[in-house]
């Protein structure tokens, strides 16, 4: 019969509490289940009990499900990381509910205390799970395969063969070493257990890579989390709008918006520069049978020709910046083309004939035909400060009822349609103001559709005189501008590496098979050699039956096997 | 048919091919509908299928009996005495736990399968032609996404049918395919065209294809896990568990006799879910992050789309865990798989249509 061979200790580390796979395995192998005992009294006992609970499979599962549920509100309510303006609007629109939701960090779900608590607990549980599993797996890899179960016929796959009595060739000794070498050839790790009388058993196991894959997967998740966190700490991102011929130097003052990570320091900004030389847009102009196609006028390509200088010593270099093709400058900062639009150049003269404002005005496109919001502020104008709000239309088209719309995104018939205001623009109080918004509440209307003078319509090169001799506005030319994002995140490379190792580990863990096989060899009462074998899978294995068949075929090829009817096992 | 030259680097749209694409899309939708109807007929006529199996069994038994009576000589007594009651087909005669074909004749289902293959061929042509007509990967808008997903669902189903008897899934799969085709052509009809610069990336091919493959696989497992829940209830009733009206109906439902055992459904759903999970990890999660990093400058920004991609991933990870957790194997795990699929449906309907996301491109940052 089989020998008792002391294999790896069958203790149950906390990692395998609640593990249904382990239960199935133990049951099949006839190993008694050792469950975790009730908490011992005392503080350490309680702590150990809590730790066991936290690292159990069931807790991991609960935390995973909780994480999924907790992530959902962030897709329903606006998030500050996404769009802080939308959050402000939401709170203003819902004066009772808004602040309550804000208190519960519903607008900052992914950095909220409760979301963080869930994933930190999950990762503690994960580490508490990986460490003992790794230790246990290491032990299993360096110790012989588990001892041979007493009753192989209780295993999920089982077979028996009776060999013809053919002397040496089918003696139990020979059969035992044959079986061992056949299993070895099938890439099992093999341990032969001989009894004194020539009989004995073989214990074999393969597929250790499955568990290694599982551990690699879980460790990689920890790696991803660490580098997501670290990357965010050292990262920075910022935005800049650049008009044609304007240059940007990577320094804090040059940014329109700047968002540093917690551990960002100003000297981390590598001194590169970038200048916008020209900008081209391409639109769909295909005709179907002489008619515009359904997507006529859709943007197809944006190309910014830029000159970059990667550091003060480097040579200036001309290159292209396109969507989906960021530039990499300054040792890891990425430059993205994220927006573009038109910047009409206007000159505002005040009531005293002095130039109060002159230059390109960045307008914000609102739709695919670049109907763009325009705001002009002339705080230096006197006697009254002047402000203008309205639209820039690249190809203005009169609809007939006095309203003009943009008919095309390209500059076919550029027009400015503006209302003008006079009064205190509120720029002197030091309250930061959005340059794209003019608060007209306290201003005097000069030109609007409601006033007697009507609104201002300016074609290229035209000048409009404001009423009451308060000044004039002239529309000189149109320039292009682009909006770029500058991102620096040192974590991304490592996150990608860990994502790849996680995937490799996952594939190994899901599709490799971990199998145990045992073969016992004994002599029956007829003096013939009786070979029994049994197979057991750790985890899922839908091809165990195939393995049984393959093994049996190999046995039958190697040995003269008596036909089953004549088998006499009892 | 190609008109004015384009002002860009992109090849012009091939209008003729685009028209063929639209025509074949409609033809395939029509044939899918026929296949769905036939699968429904087959389901409704499950008892006829079972009677046919029983008739075959009884004919076989009579032959055997006749052979025993007459000896080795060939019997030609067509009117053998029919003293025994006709046999009742056991579950093994009807379905196999390995989903192998056991010779159950189901003419309606077989025609439905053949129609599905024809429809898939026409559908495949339509999708490829659309891509060729615009010289790009044809998964750039809701219409193209839905039609491509429907194609992959039916191709994956047909591929499964080669080796496995998945006819019991026909109603569910074709029902979904028809829904997607109808949704695409009625809900989101989109004329063929080029795409905005952000979508002109090779990543769209890998990213969306993996997502669609994962969805196709999850669709099959969703149907299997649903049937598993029903089947295990039915099995409990047949084992003598107390029954209400629903269970009585289930126990006598003939279609459920043509469905594999709950155990078999469970393990097949798991095998497929494992594949789907790898696709989801590689597709929406990893290549999605890579592309987002290339296009928007951040690999992950909790856009509603990204939130739901993550939720789905975590739910299926939960499913894989549940199957290894004491007390959670079997039906509870099946529920998680079902919830995962519901999340996918939400992701491609509610989230796409109603939650604002990062998908406009000419605008300025705040
Ligand atoms: C960050 C959260 C986690 C994720 C996303 C995750 C994901 C996964 C996935 C996808 C599998 C399937 C691979 C397989 O079946 O072999 C798996 C398996 C496993 N996980 Fe996790 N896991 C997480 C946390 C944990 C924790 C905290 C534990 C500790 C209790 C744990 C223990 C296990 C075990 C024991 C298996 C193998 C199950 C088996 O025997 O098949 N996991 N995990």
TrEMBL record, chain A:
Q: How does it sit in the membrane?
A: Multi-pass membrane protein
Query: Which compartments is it annotated to reside in?
Result: Membrane
Basic and acidic residues compositional bias, start-end = 15-24
Can you cite a GO biological process for this protein? cytochrome complex assembly
Annotated Pfam families: ResB (PF05140)
Where is the stretch described as Disordered?
Answer: 1-30
Q: Does the keyword Membrane apply?
A: yes
- Matching InterPro entries: Cyt_c_bgen_Ccs1/CcsB/ResB (IPR023494), ResB-like_domain (IPR007816)
| UniProt entry keywords in alphabetical sequence | Cytochrome c-type biogenesis, Membrane, Transmembrane, Transmembrane helix
Domain ResB-like, which positions? 57-547
Transmembrane region(s): 60-77, 113-131, 215-236, 494-512
Recorded hits in PANTHER family, A to Z, give: CYTOCHROME C BIOGENESIS PROTEIN CCS1, CHLOROPLASTIC
Output this protein's name: Cytochrome c biogenesis protein ResB
TrEMBL record, chain B:
Annotated TM spans = 23-41, 111-133, 145-162, 169-192, 204-227, 272-292, 307-322, 334-355
- UniProt membrane topology term: Multi-pass membrane protein
Cite the residue spans of the region called Disordered: 71-91
Source domain of life is Bacteria
Per UniProt, residues of the Cytochrome c assembly protein domain are 142-359
Assigned GO CC terms: plasma membrane
Here the segments flagged for biased composition (Low complexity) are 72-88
UniProt-annotated location(s): Membrane
Per UniProt, the keywords (alphabetical) are: Cytochrome c-type biogenesis, Membrane, Transmembrane, Transmembrane helix
Cross-referenced InterPro entries: Cyt_c_assembly, Cyt_c_biogenesis_CcsA, Cyt_c_biogenesis_CcsA/CcmC
The GO terms describing molecular function are: heme binding
The biological process GO terms on file are: cytochrome complex assembly
Q: What does the record list as coiled-coil region(s)?
A: none
Under the heading NCBIfam families, the entry gives: cytochr_II_ccsB
Q: What is this protein called?
A: C-type cytochrome biogenesis protein CcsB
Q: Source species, please?
A: Nesterenkonia sphaerica
